Amino acid sequence: MCYFGFSIPISSSICINHLLLLSHYGFKNREASPFFSFLSRPLFFSYCTPSATHGHQAIYSLFSFSFHHVYSLLDSSIKFSKAFFPVLKSPIIHGFSSFFFNFLDFDFLTPCSMASVLRLRKLYFVNPVKSSSMGLQSIEAHKSEDKRNVIVAYVKKLMQKKQDKDDKQKRNKNTNRGQSREWKCLDNCCWIIGYICTFWWLMFFLYHYLPLSVPGFPAIDSPGAVLKREGISGRHPVVLVPGIVTGGLELWDGKPCAEGLFRKRLWGGSFTETLKRPLCWLEHLSLDNETGLDPPGIRVRPVEGLVAADYFAQGYFVWAVLIENLAKIGYDGKNLHMAAYDWRIAFQNTEVRDRALSRLKSKIEVMYATNGENKVVVVPHSMGVLYFLHFMKWVEAPPPMGGGGGLGWCAKHIKSIMNIGSTFLGTPKAVSKILSAEDRHVALLRAMTPGFLKSEILGFQTLEHLLRVSRTWDSTASLLPKGGETIWGDLDWSPEDVQNCDLKKVDAHSFRNENDSDDSERKKCFQEQEPVHYGRIISFSKEAATRPSSELSTLNLEELKNSGGSNDSSFSCSDVWTEYDEMSRDSIRKVSENKAYTVKTVFDLLRVVAPKMMQRMDSHFSHGIAEDLDDPKYAHHKYWSNPLETKLPDAPNMEIYCLYGVGIPTERSYIYDSSYDKCKSIPFRIDLSIEGKGSGCLRSGMYFVDGDDSVPIVSSGFMCAKGWRNKTRFNPSGSPTYVREYRHKAPASLLEGRGVESSAHVDIMGNVNLIEDILRVAAGEEIGGDKIYSDILTLSERINLKL
Fold this sequence. Notes:
Elements: E1 2-4, E2 6-8, H1 13-22, H2 35-40, H3 42-48, H4 52-76, H5 78-84, H6 91-101, H7 115-119, H8 145-209, H9 223-229, E3 238-241, E4 249-253, E5 265-267, H10 272-276, H11 278-285, E6 299-302, E7 311-313, E8 316-317, H12 320-328, E9 336-338, H13 347-354, H14 356-370, E10 376-380, H15 383-396, H16 409-413, E11 414-420, H17 429-436, H18 440-448, H19 455-458, H20 462-470, H21 475-478, H22 484-488, H23 520-524, E12 538-540, H24 542-546, H25 557-563, H26 585-592, E13 596-597, H27 599-609, H28 611-620, E14 655-662, E15 664-674, E16 684-686, E17 698-699, E18 702-707, H29 713-723, E19 737-743, H30 768-778, H31 792-798
Parallel strand pairs: 3-9, 3-10, 10-11, 11-14, 12-15, 14-19
Antiparallel strand pairs: 1-2, 4-5, 4-6, 7-8, 12-13, 15-16, 15-18, 17-18
Pfam families: LCAT (PF02450)
Protein name: Phospholipid:diacylglycerol acyltransferase 2
Transmembrane segments: 6-27, 189-210
């Protein structure tokens, strides 16, 4: 240690800063002095270090560095010094400061940062010691314990204030953390809505204010305009039959919560009421769970006219493009009709409640009579295909169950039936909708935004409500797969086993052209990666989907029925009742444990998880294959919408077209995950974590085949390709059938909207090739025979059906 008036550790420039700070009050009137000459003397360092020769340069550098910093720091922080050292204005310290700084020459100092001072503010106190080396009087006698305590207390106060501030910030952070979690997802949703609205307004502006043709993107003439220039005009009246969910519904009577909505759309249109009063909206869309008709005090009816299904929502066309093209060749309200019906209820109930079938029969008869007795061209879409198939049996059946039109009514009034996106044999998607209210799009939405479908965002459990409401719609049961294992396969076989797959949506260039007999390019689009069992339409785990059928357990339906319901109320975590609340934890485990279901056994599964819906289904629909179509039981209306349990009308000249899209991966079977050990609001979910190898058929817990994104080709094309082709027991009069496939081509730019050559299930309604075919048939023109791009003929040959 070196004794130079104060105790200074010579190994640290920081303590020298303390010395200079304590001498601040004698600093203002400093005078230049030969201090460095003093420092240069070995005698000085002999007082400070044991060895002057070894310490001279080190101490000189040390003091120079310290004084350089301290001078500039004190000079720039006078306020801090005055506030911090009032207790150090003692005569002894002040005198020593003057004495010490008179030796110094500070001309070499320059300003610098005050960080060095603040860095060690907690050490600002002095410890007087005896100074014998400089001949100064000891200042130990003048040490004041009170002054020291004041300084220490002041430092502690500053540190305590800082600690209190940090604690307060920490408490505020913890308090706000919970709120931030609640609002984070909502904030993200608001941003997404903002982006969507901005994009929508941008598209709205471009649509209305940009010219119809943009350089580099020439406008495409509509099929109606092209045919009009060719001199083709409408000849046959046209009836449009919408499918499920695309027709508008309006309120005629409702509960108090629906006041002000009389004759306003509850389904279709703007859907503003969904956000205003969602639970009330769902209540009015529901049907009675026992009868399948209106609940007490509620009347919701289909919108009438072409506006019923021209647009599903603002800007989302369904029939609008086809209607516009029909108008270009001369169609209007006199020879164009939209056969709107309530798509929620069973087909026969549309007649019981609304007389919809009778009104359709009368409309066709009037259009036939007022248009020169030209037969009508009927254009059904999706589920509308099944609805019109039911109508053809109803119209010829005797009263009271039928319309009493007689056996020749269809042959007299109908020229052609152009089935778009036909669902003759159902779709596997209907199974997942009933089981868990999911399909591919809903499952992916649940995975990407899990909170959006839960009560945290919309205020109610969305999927649970959708499941409850959709199970009151009998129309959903009409879309369940028909034909059993003969059509859809069993645990070890299915017609699609020979079909290769690729999950990439292929465009028109991926297929061979119409005149190219080499289909090698087309087969490249579907490359097999691993063996699959499409016949296992529902599997609980990937192992159940792939292991040998002998290792799978079977469902004992009677055992489950006898197991009864659950008394464990804690097992349910839903705010809304579903039929899963009637199942015990053990029943859910038995349903899912190491099991795979074919189309035949999946009906047993649905009878367990949705008993009321399936009970109503058994009264209105059938999904089997008739052994003897002359059996009197097939005269019942429950068989009329199943093409495998009914005959086509005796109309040898009535043309039947199957028009559908191909080239889009379409859901065929599902791998589910079960949670019978947790709460059971919906205990089954599509397992999105399951992936196949490479670009195979398995993606996100779903197996895909060729189709139109909703309906596999086996359902859309089999009846026209084989079931009704030529004279069969299902087509005894030999009505001609045609398969017209439309290969998918995604939009090339935003200017194409949803695509003029798209073949997706709904977007195909704007496909220019399909529209041209319909217009030519309606005008009495020929469009040729089959146009096939898929493997529908091969698949049909693999189906061993008695014809």
